[in-house]
């Protein structure tokens, strides 16, 4: 869960190659919210196929789970108008629209992360956007803190929480469902998990942690192979892959040169 998650995962892979791990990010939640509204189907009847890197991935496929019907043509026909009507500068806004136009696949991570990895992102981002994003995140964190503190004080007084008082539904985070699927051998499908590449995306470095769909059963988490990404998408992802490589090597080897190179 901890950022920079992709780099943390890559460091784990290199220092403990036999250790099983997954990296999780809730950025896919943007699509989980919007897609059912766009294609008029329930989320549990949609099979999302996002591929790429954490905070830098693309929706490569979308199917109706019950029928196997390819929903990408419908998605692409509706996406531009839909997201224009639901534009949010902290989610899908001008940078997302520009990348979608240039590469023909929607980057599902939102402007607030996409701008970290593309040099031309600064053309679509105002300084005030970043200030407001930090302020909003800070305010949200303080609201959560006050709520948790209030419940903690009740517990100290012996006033136990009623069912549903913390949350009326699930959080949307996927760690517990993944653990449950391993324990129960559920053979579940998770749309966005970070694991070692190992042939999942053929034209990205194999010594890399990628974000992809997986199946989960008693034997663990298994990445679903995609094959080759479009060459232009693979090219921009490889730049970030090299930066991650240099960054992790800088830490593991305590190399100032690699650290400077990763920032360059």
Structure write-up:
The strands form two sheets. The protein has a three-stranded antiparallel sheet with strand order 3-4-5. A two-stranded antiparallel sheet has the order 1-2. The chain is α+β, with helices and mostly antiparallel strands and 264 residues long. A hairpin with a 2-residue loop joins strand 1 and strand 2. It contains nine helices and five strands; from the N terminus they run ααββαααααβββαα. The relative contact order is 0.15. The protein has a single domain, classed as LDH C-terminal domain-like (Alpha-Beta Complex), CATH 3.90.1820.10. Helices cover 46% and strands 15% of the residues. The longest helix is centred in the middle third of the chain and has 30 residues. The protein is globular, with a radius of gyration of 20 Å. Keywords: Carbohydrate metabolism, Glycosidase, Hydrolase, Manganese, Metal-binding, NAD.
Please give the number of β-strands. Answer: 5
- What's the Cα radius of gyration? 20 Å
What best-fitting shape do the alpha-carbon axes yield? globular
Task: Tell me the name of the CATH homologous superfamily.
Answer: AglA-like glucosidase
Number of domains: 1
Strand residues, percent:
5-15%
Quickly count the helices. 9
**Oligomer category:** single chain
CATH topology group: LDH C-terminal domain-like
CATH C-level class is Alpha Beta
**Spatial separation of the terminal alpha carbons:** 26 Å
Helical residue percent band: 40-55%
**Which strands sit side by side, in order, in the main sheet?**
3-4-5
Largest sheet: 3 strands, antiparallel
> Mean pLDDT across all residues, rounded?
93
The run of helices and strands is HHEEHHHHHEEEHH
Supply the helix-strand structural class.
alpha+beta
């Amino acid at each position: 869960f901890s950022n920079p998650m992709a780099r943390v995962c890559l460091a784990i892979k290199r220092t403990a190659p036999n250790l099983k791990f997954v990296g999780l990010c809730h950025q896919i939640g943007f699509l989980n919210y919007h897609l059912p509204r766009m294609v008029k189907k329930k989320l549990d009847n949609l099979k999302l196929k996002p591929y790429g890197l954490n905070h830098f991935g693309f929706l490569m496929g979308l199917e109706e789970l019950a029928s196997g019907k390819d929903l990408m043509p419908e998605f692409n026909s509706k996406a531009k108008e839909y997201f224009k009507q639901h534009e949010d500068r902290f989610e899908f806004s001008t940078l997302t629209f520009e990348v979608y136009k240039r590469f023909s696949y929607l980057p599902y991570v939102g402007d607030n992360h996409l701008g970290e990895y593309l040099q031309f992102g600064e053309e679509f981002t105002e300084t005030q956007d970043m200030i407001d994003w930090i302020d909003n995140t800070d305010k949200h964190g303080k609201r959560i803190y006050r709520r948790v503190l209030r419940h903690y004080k009740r517990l100290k007084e012996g006033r136990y929480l009623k069912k549903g008082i913390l949350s009326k539904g699930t959080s949307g985070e996927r760690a517990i469902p993944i653990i449950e699927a391993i324990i129960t051998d559920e053979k579940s499908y998770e749309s966005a998990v970070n694991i070692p590449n190992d042939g999942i995306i053929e034209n990205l470095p194999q010594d890399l942690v990628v974000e992809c769909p997986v199946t989960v059963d008693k034997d663990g988490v298994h990445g679903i192979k995609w094959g080759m990404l479009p060459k232009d998408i693979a090219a921009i992802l490889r730049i970030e892959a090299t930066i991650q490589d240099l960054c992790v090597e800088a830490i593991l080897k305590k190399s100032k040169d690699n650290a400077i190179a990763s920032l360059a």
